[in-house]
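Entry type: protein chain
Record version: 2
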Amino acid sequence: MRRSLSVAVVAGLLAGAGVALAAPGPLQLRDRLLEQGEFAGYRVESTTQSYKTATAWVGAGPHVPTTQRSADVARLHREGFVSLLSEFLDRGSERQSGLSWVMQLGSAAAARAELKVDLAQNKSETTMGGGLYSAFSVPGVPGARGYRVSGGGSVGENIFFADGPFLYLVGQGFSSAEKSPPTRAGLIAAVTTLYRRVHRHPAG
């Protein structure tokens, strides 16, 4: 006797019974950010920041040599950069101690490629600056990549995942001296909630 039903089997049973499975509806970028209550311990700030061009997004990042900045912009253009929307998250009295952003690119392949580039760049920037970098797994979110950076009394934990032509990041930062820092489990739970809400929904 079958102990569980796969998605394919369930779909077949419903189709045979004349039940239509609705395709996921389109979502705007704003609906692809974390919503209030989805990240335990954090509050979503009411304002968002929008980047309509690759140049604007790259320029908002850390200072890098002009040649690298030009290369980053060119890469995003090749990947079909459309837009990026970000929001800050507050924890207690700590403002902007968390972050959620989503980038829309030209294809699913481009989103997966950008994920790899961003991971490599973040690791390089951390280690070159004398910080520590370590990866961690994110069960339940296919292809998600988590990493922890630390140095100078600060800790950051971030998770990237790609779904369709969209690349997502959710992160949290805190002092290494905190006695009750936010947990990685809480971060993973928030990302899992976000993934389940946006998975397979096309662009709005």
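Comment: The longest strand covers residues 94-104.
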